[in-house]
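Q: Joint fold for the lines below.
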Amino acid sequence: MTSRLILAHLPTPLVQPKRLAKHLGIDLWIKRDDSTGGAESGNKVRKLEYLLADAVQQGANVVITCGGIQSNHARATALCAAALGMRAVLFLRTKEESRNIANEPLTGNVLLDRFAGAEIRLITPAQYAARNALMEEAAAELRDAGQRPYVIVEGGSSGLGAFGYIEAMREIRRQLDMGLGGSKPFDVIVHACGSGGTAAGTALGAALHGVAAQVRPMAVCDDAPTFEAIIGRIIAEAREIDPAVGEPANVVVDDRAKGPAYAVSTQEQRARMVLATRLSGLVFDPVYTGKALSGLWDLCESGELSGKRVLFLHTGGLPGLLAQGSTFADDV
Ligand SMILES: Cc1ncc(COP(=O)(O)O)c(C=O)c1O
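A: Joint structure:
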């Protein structure tokens, strides 16, 4: 049995952005998981409900996690830890040459991490490759100093974290049963994929609760085979925790919208993000949701989704956009 804290503001709305749907030519619905909370908002809060419940149960007083310098996951963890009276230690990946937090602009997620009082340890891309060992080392040091640390892997993407999205699919099932979202199951769920946990939980929950037959995670970095392996591993971990979750829906990882690099978008992606906002009032970010939206846009243009009922899972990420405002100078 998994225990859960209530951290998110649920249920999040299930909306139909009519003008955007018409522009894309599909039956489009959006699950507003950008609205799971205040500054801690986004997909990570759902995973943290399970992960931090485990931390509390284990008597932890320090949470250790990792991510890119503008990690939404690290920010959500820092804020939720502060709410629970725990300290947060964040291992954040940054460029080799700038190893001092004082040199990092106080924008977006970094600003919020600092507000939350998190301890930030900057690490290089090479050190990031060994992030799990680094976090375990830090945990051992803290234990030696009499603290009670709890390590959360990148993105909260473990079998336990995946339960956040199994539960999210149950929430959508209830919304469909109430006549929301067009009442019928979706043909496909599209969302941004960065560390695989959202995809794993969504695939398991979508099948378990009859929400959709297919899940299409849009990779924002790395290629499809890499994510297929990661998602498969997280699904197996979740099924080990609770075999009753059953078989996942069909997962088709799509890496065509990952752009030039992690957190770097194309001009076309940025233009689509801005147009989508003007057609819907919804805001997308250039690291995650904007790339996923652009991938969805390509599928609509190629006709692959014609006649399909599509659910776009909006996973948040607004601070990441605000940290990159100047890259939109030509688009707004
Ligand atoms: C805004 C946003 N969307 C999507 C994702 C991807 O989710 P996951 O890490 O579960 O693949 C993340 C985190 O990496 C995120 O911060």
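Q: Anything notable?
A: The chain has two domains: 14-39+157-328, 44-156. The radius of gyration is 19 Å.
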